[in-house]
Design a protein that fits this description.
By secondary structure, the protein is mainly α. Helix content is about 70%, strand content about 5%. The chain contains 11 helices and 2 strands, in the order H-H-H-H-E-E-H-H-H-H-H-H-H.
Length: about 290
């Protein structure tokens, strides 16, 4: 029972990164219709920026959780204004190729600047060690990541469901054609929504900085799993992105514990099973599929 509790916490903590990043990816896809392949690179930039801030200005994790998403939001706005907006009226394949090329560019720039060996990141002392829960020692940092991510997802959900701006963005995300028919200017929300999605990826990167190796390639495998998360949860579904992220984290943790050779494969087996039963994903709409 102690092993199950430990693997559950590990899986939910790992799923926190997927949930935050997938939430941003789902919002971007819903409003812009863009399959943002650069999301993994933005996640990597979040971790790298946190490490650089710690090394050069001694800005630790607590301030990085605020500063880095703001920086990534600004970067996302610039990317959308300079690049993405010009291809929105064309076939979605063009923006997919654009974001794929942007990924290659960002990864190469980081490699040239900081090398391939990885950057160090020291977590706060208060989050070192283990926390006793039901007689089981659980890493404090994993518990913090889990609680913080759930809080962020809850805040985003409250904003989306309890505020006028959130309702407009949610309508533009989940039913863009209906939103336009009701007179909502969906195009007005394109730039801030893209920036917000990038900020969520950057936030996931900051949380991953003390937890995973910070390298230029850390987003490569991440984006593949992230697409699996979005497919499982449902394209354009905000709730599906969060649920899918935590579900994939659990599958990954228990797979690594009991079948490490097939841990990554199990994620895509789950994706295939969901698609076969429900092509739109767990919370997606059938017309999206």
């Amino acid at each position: 029972m102690s092993d199950v509790l430990q693997y559950t916490v590990q899986g939910l903590a790992a799923g926190s990164f997927y949930a935050l990043a997938a939430l941003g990816l789902a919002i971007i896809f819903g409003v812009l219709g863009v399959v943002n392949f650069a999301h993994g690179a933005f996640y990597m930039l979040g971790a790298v920026t946190a490490a650089v801030l710690l090394d050069t200005t001694e800005i630790g994790l607590w301030w990085a959780l605020l500063v880095v998403p703001l920086l990534l939001f600004g970067f996302g706005v610039v990317v959308e204004r300079l690049l993405v907006q010009w291809l929105l009226r064309l076939d979605p394949l063009y923006n997919f190729l654009l974001t794929f090329g942007l990924t290659l560019l960002l990864v190469d720039l980081v490699k040239r600047k900081y090398g391939v060996s990885g950057l160090p990141y020291e977590r706060p002392e208060v989050l070192d060690g283990r926390f006793e829960l039901l007689g089981v020692g659980l890493p404090k940092y994993q518990l913090f990541v889990l609680i913080f991510s759930i809080a962020v997802c809850l805040v985003v959900w409250l904003v989306m469901t309890r505020t006028r701006i959130g309702m407009i963005v949610r309508a533009s995300t989940e039913r863009p054609e209906l939103a336009r028919a009701l007179g909502i200017n969906v195009g007005r929300w394109v730039t801030p929504v893209f920036g917000f999605g990038v900020a969520l990826a950057g936030l996931a990167g900051v949380l991953a900085a003390p937890f995973r190796a910070i390298t230029a390639d850390m987003g490569n495998d991440f984006i593949i799993i992230l697409f699996a998360v979005v497919v499982i949860g449902g394209l354009g579904s905000i709730v599906g992105a969060v649920v899918g992220g935590f579900l994939v984290g659990l599958v990954e943790a228990f797979g690594q514990a009991y079948a490490p050779t097939y841990a990554q494969i199990l994620i895509f087996v789950l994706m295939a099973a969901v698609v076969l039963v429900r092509p739109a994903g767990l919370f997606g709409r059938e017309e999206t599929a």
